[in-house]
Specification:
alpha/beta; Serine Threonine Protein Phosphatase 5, Tetratricopeptide repeat; Rossmann fold; 3 domains; four-stranded parallel beta sheet; 18 helices; 10 strands; TPR_rpt
């Protein structure tokens, strides 16, 4: 979660701190930082100023300095659950995981109803593979995000499902839905008579290929009564999933033959077909770390011969390929603007040899299809599902390889991908 900014009241620094907050909200980070520092010049014991300055420093990547200011804030305000949670967040960024866990637990001891801290602790535990405990804290996301309104029938909490109807509701991103849709056959095996899934129209053509779902609803207004409902990402908790018991029957999605045929002629007829996605959802909290700044960062891959690159990038980012300076002997096939939905994406991916992408929904499409995928993970804020180390995914063990960004940053990460691609082509 984003760090909590504290408001000032009843002290001489109030106006400066309010001005700093206003500058922050207007996107003027430099002015906001300067104002916080002015407060500390006048009063070095101002815990609120230390906290708010630390937030700015963390956002700008100066995490070690941010940690110091959070710690100084806590000297002045040791009973602040918000500051302890903020400190825990930057400790995670710095990979000081044990200390981060301690601070999250201290925050919750101070404020047991602090749902954001519960959610963040859940993510920390899940990323460590501590699923049994992590899922319980992860359930706090329902209060944090409040994605689902009140339904006129109960949420499922593990009751007997024999002969019952169950509605699964999506949450968060498309990738989350694809990842957890694998649980549908397990629910049917528990005796669910009718399993319904609510989803957006553009992901329905992919989800409709999943075994076990009886009905898909793309219009929330068309929902009917069920015996139970549940959030799709609560299924790991409900079914007691551990890293060793993840349902990993791959593939668990498919592609309609008509879609395959429609895209076949658009793909390169020769060479090794490699799909590329370099940007994810720009609204994601960690998008600056997850997405590449520009397509041109991938150009080192063009030094590997025999590859036919295919763009799966949807949205405006595909425009970046139009003046990319790539070798004219290895042009990129731009398909992003023609992709209508995830059914199209799956039909293309199913006919590729490899997908290279940042952490976005296309990785889950490839993983669920059993198509080789090289996933480029950020150095900060890696999603819990990829855990903290290792090159294999417990969720997609068949053909997914994880490239983790290290001290060398993105250039070193992409060079590692280039070297791996060259090695594959050399062996072939």
């Amino acid at each position: 979660m984003k760090p909590r900014t504290l408001a000032a009241a009843g002290n001489a620094s109030h106006s400066l701190l309010q001005a700093a907050l206003a500058a922050y909200r207007q996107g003027d980070m430099k002015q906001a930082e300067a104002l916080c520092r002015r407060v500390l010049e006048q009063d070095e014991h101002n815990g609120i100023a230390h906290n708010n300055l630390a937030n700015l420093l963390r956002q700008s990547g100066r995490r070690s300095e941010a940690k110091q200011h959070y710690e100084r804030a806590l000297v002045q305000m040791p009973a602040s659950a918000e500051i302890r949670s903020n400190l825990a967040g930057v400790l995670e960024d710095l990979r000081e995981y044990d200390t981060a866990e301690i601070e999250y637990r201290r925050a919750l001891a101070l404020r047991p109803d602090f749902v954001e801290a519960r959610f963040d602790l859940g993510l920390l535990l899940l990323s460590a593979g501590r699923y049994a405990e992590g899922w319980v804290y992860y359930e706090a996301r329902a209060q944090v995000f409040a994605e689902h309104g009140t339904l006129p029938f109960p949420q499922w909490n593990g009751e007997d499902l024999t002969g019952k109807s169950l509605l699964l509701l999506p949450e968060q991103g498309y990738g989350d839905t694809i990842q957890f849709a694998r649980y549908a056959p397990l629910l049917k095996a528990r005796g669910v008579k009718t399993l319904t899934m609510l989803c957006k129209p553009d992901i329905a053509p992919l989800l409709q290929t999943i075994e076990g779902v009886d009905e898909f609803v793309t219009d929330p207004g068309a929902l009917r009564m069920h015996d139970y409902w549940d959030s799709i990402m609560s299924l790991g908790c409900r079914l007691g999933t551990t890293p060793e018991t993840i349902p990993a029957k791959i593939p668990y999605v498919g592609v309609f033959a008509s879609r395959l045929e429609a895209w076949r002629a658009r793909l390169p007829a020769d060479g090794v077909r490699v799909g590329l996605v370099w940007k994810g959802n720009p609204d994601h909290d960690n998008d600056a770390e997850r997405s590449l700044r520009h397509f041109s960062e991938l150009l080192p891959l063009w030094s590997v011969g025999g590859i036919r690159f295919v763009s799966l990038q949807v949205g405006q980012a595909e425009v970046e390929t139009e003046t990319d300076g790539t070798n004219t002997q290895q042009p990129i096939v731009r398909l992003g603007k023609e992709i209508r939905d995830f059914g199209d994406t799956a039909a293309i991916v199913a006919q590729l040899n490899l997908v290279i992408c940042v952490d976005t929904a296309v990785a889950h499409v490839a993983g669920a299809l059993g198509v080789a995928c090289w996933l480029m993970l950020p150095g900060v804020g890696t999603d819990w599902r990829w855990h903290r180390s290792g090159n294999q995914s417990a969720w997609y063990p068949k053909d997914m390889y994880l490239f983790r960004q290290g001290p060398g940053g993105r250039p070193a990460l992409i060079d590692e991908v280039r070297a791996a691609l060259a090695d594959v082509m050399k062996r072939d």
